[in-house]
Amino acid sequence: MCGIFGVMDKRRQMMDGSGIREALSIMNERGSGEGAGYVAYGIYPDYRDCYALHVFFDNPGKSKAIVDATLEQWGTIEHDEAIPTCDQPNLKANCTPWRYFFKPDASLAPGSASPEKDVVTSIVMQINASANGAEIVSSGKNVGLFKASGWPEDVADYYRIQDYEGYIWLAHNRYATSNPELWERPDPFNLHDWSVVENGKTTTYGANRRYVESFGYNCSTGTDSEVIAYLIDLLTRKHGLGIDLAIRALAPPYWDEIDRMPEAEQNLNRALRFAYGSATMNGPFTVVAANPDTMIGFTDRGKLRPMVVGECGDRLYIASEETAIRAMEPCVESIRRPAAGEPVIGRVAP
Amino acid sequence: MSSNFGSMPLRYRITIDREQCMECGRCVENCPYGVFRWDGNRILINSRNCTACHRCLTYCPRDAIMLQEHPCDYRSHPVWTRAVRESIYNQSRTGKIILAGMGSVANLPIIFDHLMLDACQVTTPPTDPLREPVELRTYLGKKPSKLDFTQKPNGDVELSTELTPNLMLETPIMLGHMSYGALSLNAHVAMARAAKETGTYMGTGEGGLHPGLYPYQDRMIVQVASGRFGVNVDYLERGAAIELKLGQGAKPGIGGHLPGEKVSADVSRTRMIPQGSDAISPAPHHDIYGIEDLPQLVNSVKEATERKKPIFAKIAAVNNNAENVAAVARSGVDAIAIDGFRGGTGAAPRVFRDHVGIPIEVAIATADQELRKQGLRNEVSLIACGSIRESTDVIKAIALGADAVYIGTAALVAMGCRVCGNCYQGLCPWGIATQRPDLVARLDPDVASKQIANLIHAWTLEITELMGAAGINSIESLRGNRDRLRGYMLDEGLLEILDVKSVGA
Amino acid sequence: MAKQVTIDAKGVHYTPLNQQIRKAIEDGADEIVVNNVLGQRFIGNGLRGNATIRVNGVAGGDLAMFMSGPTVIVDGNAEHAPGNTMDSGKVVIHGSAGDAVAHSMRGGKIFVRGDIGYRGGIHMKQYETQRPILVVGGSAQTFLGEYMAGGLLLVLGLDGAMKAREIGSGIHGGEIVIRGDVDEACLAAGAKKLPLTDEDRARIAPVIREFAADFGLDAEPLVKANYTRIVPASARPFAGKYTWE
Ligand code: SF4
Ligand code: SF4
């Protein structure tokens, strides 16, 4: 099941987390109270040039030194602190959330078109792959991810997300099927720019994972959203696909439809399926993802999961249920349900 | 010089229930091995010539004939088995290498049978292939690893990557290479028609292309083997794709041999060799002594055909299969067929057939893995062959990393073959593996092609059902998706090589 | 005199909400107005009788599931699968609805003024006198009438072109009637197009009139309009697929 929610303000007007909390918890019927998470863009204006690393420490006394050392080896820690939290009776904290504001040393990834992101990517892969009691859960500039095992309201209150203001928020209400106790397990998943929430479960995890791993990504959580975040990063940043084509590669049209397209379009779609057959996602899913400039949503090509899109002024909403949108925006101006594979792409004004 | 073995125990015994028999003589007509003969108005039986081809049983109107294998017991012994003893008798009598037909008879576990498929239950819904699309369409050939675009003045992007030629299959099942010469023309025509009807392709084998197959040439993958039989530029141009045969699973490391008796006038014309002479394929291609020679041959074939056709290479699965595949993938070929050690053959030395090579399941899994590791997976398609017996073998091969499969023996069985293993005698009672006109005439290409097409169709239906049940609606989402397999009673080492989890995990 | 009861659903979980509705019916209410509905599921679930329930707001999933008798009128949209496995009665939705509307519905009527999502009318079925009817005022999405085994599925296309492809995939009973022409390419295997005969038109006319009356539309132009009728090519479309061992 799971319920997902995304909202973006096209003019970067800030929203605090309280409305998002409302929207997510109205979909509690879709969750099991064993995981919820929020990610927001624009919450760290004072450190906007730093990569904000949110880290879960099993025990900071033991693991923090390892992360400190790794970060210092790859760049400079501008500031770090425990993420403020507020104990909740229904939440059993089993890790300490921490944040670093970090500047990677670009000279350590020579020849790359986006050296800072390459450095951050390899730090994330390195720390998350090894059993060191530390898990980096988000790593983007001016982005922060807050998640835990519990109901959406409790998780929101634990992190006091109403105290954060962002112009894009994604949120996820989890129906757990495995490892309900792990705080790093629920969506959203983040890797620097991109954050992902998913409702559903692909049937292609194995094929997709093998594909991204052959490009140096390391799937350590076993979740779809992790693979999806890597796929989007690979296709857009490394392979230079526009986000619309990247979505087309992940949820391509059927051959029957391609056969009926005009020739140039046919060629393009065939080429996408040729090149990205192993990246194609199958099975039921709705994905909502964001980077600092964009929010996107798409469903599997068989349309096995719901996706509702709402618009109201500068705000774009994508959610599992219309109800969630109305919980935050009672007077939403338009509601629609896009077709399978039809991408919803919202861009923040430059 | 005679031996002291005398008469060996019968391999098969044929009996006729005389109460049922109406003395119609159909068995006498049908058995090309001369097991039956008239003695006045009584039919006599010489069981010693029997190959268990079942032809007589099929045509007896009264079900009067019965066949028994090994009617005489040897003293049982787990080490000195009947097979071991009979080989010794044979070789001590003849002093020769034992040849045998069809694939390996080694009694080793079949990995396919220890791989279980997945199905959706509660977290994902199955797809019903009857009502919603499940795509089996498969493209074989080189795929780009990354696409390039140019920006048009109006801001639109345009694809600038040129796609190289691929073969489009409606189902990932192809008819593998068995030459004209080894098989009859009727068998070839039947296969070609079935390939056309089911939207797939057929391999010519190394025997050239008979004019009778020209109408189906756009469905033919023409093979170039070390003997280069029937190969000229016309042949290359006719094929939809060209396959370089570098090895064969049933006999890795050795060449082939079509006995002169099978080189009829027609076969001689097609192969472009004199009638009645043996057609000998050398072990290696004598223009490939090192791996760097392979790209030479690939490019040469590509130049000759103006780079309009995909080029395949076929290799036998042996120990360092992964390295071999990676090496061939770099040569510029568009697809690699890997032939497992259980692959079929008209005739191969028994020791090769039963002892050399590795299973296709392992070969495909390691090839896919290695190609991905080296970033070469999109350079080539992988075709699994050698003992693909049923639709589940196809789906498992694809989940292990193959793009498509070749079937050989299964297609012969679909035409009536009983796997008697006597193809090399050239007397195939079903008209499949023979050139004797009266026997060839027994195989009606219309009927046989329908049977092969039915088989491919039925497997295709089963594959879509199995994929739908696993919630997968396109074949590329199955390819290399080993998470959808589980190993049942496979040892840990093998599971690791296959990169498949154990049942329960 | 009809007895009306009003319930405020704001912040109320669906279980107590449904308890209140049942209680009102037990107490003899003919009409129950439920205000401030925001996604509560299962409203009217399994209800018998002939009361009318007015839902003001967005009805949550599985509205009127297993319902046998009452009328539910939604002033707003509905989420997934309203009328799921419904027996009899009527659901009127003034807005649009999500995927799998009328899933496995066996009787009664569902009228949706706006659009419906994917797989509308999936596996609707009829038996003896039970004949379910789904009417959509707007458009439907792909896999419309999938597995359909009986009943009538009518799409009026009042707000623009029909978006559905793979129409009637696996249909083996009942009929799908769509206003205007339907491109052959949008039909799934196992479905075939037929022209609408005068008899057919006479059969659907009362349904169109009832729909038009419920939503204040002018019925006659709709009754006279041009329709495409889609029916199963066979009652046993997949009988030829299997053989015995
Ligand atoms: S060889 Fe074939 S036809 Fe002849 S007796 Fe044996 S089974 Fe019958
Ligand atoms: S093809 Fe070979 S194995 Fe098959 S029936 Fe003919 S001779 Fe026997």
Can you give a write-up of this model?
The complex is a heterotrimer of chains A (350), B (505) and C (245). Chain A is 30% helix and 28% strand. With 350 residues, chain A is an alpha+beta fold. Chain A has one domain: Glutamine Phosphoribosylpyrophosphate, subunit 1, domain 1 (4-Layer Sandwich). Chain B contains 15 helices and 23 strands. Chain C has a domain at 96-238: Pectate Lyase C-like (3 Solenoid), CATH 2.160.20. Helices cover 15% and strands 27% of the residues of chain C. Chain C is built from three helices and eleven strands; from the N terminus they run E-H-E-E-E-E-E-E-E-E-E-H-H-E. An eleven-stranded mixed sheet of chain C has the order 1-2-3-4-5-6-7-8-9-11-10, sandwiched between helices. Chains in contact: A-B, A-C, B-C. The A-B interface holds A 177, 200-207, 209-211, 214, 239-242, 245, 254-256, 264, 267-268, 270-275, 277-278, 280-284, 301-302, 304 and B 120, 123-125, 127, 132-133, 135, 137, 139, 143-147, 149, 157-159, 161, 163, 166, 372-373, 375, 377-378, 470-474, 476-484. The complex binds iron/sulfur cluster (SF4) (2 copies).
Which helices and strands appear, and what pairs or packs with what?
The complex is a heterotrimer of chains A (350), B (505) and C (245).
Chain A: E1 3-9, E2 15-16, H1 18-25, E3 36-41, E4 51-57, H2 60-74, E5 75-82, E6 96-104, H3 115-129, E7 134-138, E8 143-148, H4 152-159, E9 165-166, E10 168-173, E11 189-191, E12 194-200, H5 205-213, H6 224-238, H7 243-250, H8 255-259, H9 263-276, E13 285-291, E14 294-299, E15 308-312, E16 315-319, H10 322-328, E17 334-336, E18 344-347
Antiparallel strand pairs in A: 1-10, 1-16, 2-9, 3-8, 3-10, 4-6, 4-7, 5-6, 11-12, 12-13, 13-14, 14-18, 15-16, 15-17
Helix pairs in contact in A: 1-10, 5-6, 6-7, 7-9
Chain B: E1 12-16, H1 26-30, E2 36-39, E3 42-45, H2 55-59, E4 65-69, H3 82-94, E5 99-100, E6 115-117, E7 138-140, E8 149-151, E9 157-159, E10 167-169, E11 173-175, H4 185-198, E12 202-203, E13 220-224, H5 233-238, E14 241-245, E15 256-258, H6 265-271, E16 279-281, H7 293-304, E17 311-316, H8 321-329, E18 335-339, E19 348-349, H9 350-355, H10 360-373, E20 381-385, H11 391-400, E21 404-407, H12 409-415, H13 437-440, H14 445-469, E22 485-487, H15 492-498, E23 501-502
Parallel strand pairs in B: 11-21, 12-13, 13-14, 14-17, 17-18, 18-20, 20-21, 22-23
Antiparallel strand pairs in B: 1-4, 2-3, 5-19, 6-22, 7-10, 8-9, 15-16
Chain C: E1 4-8, H1 14-26, E2 31-38, E3 52-58, E4 68-75, E5 88-93, E6 109-112, E7 133-136, E8 149-155, E9 173-179, E10 191-195, H2 198-215, H3 219-224, E11 227-232
The complex binds iron/sulfur cluster (2 copies).
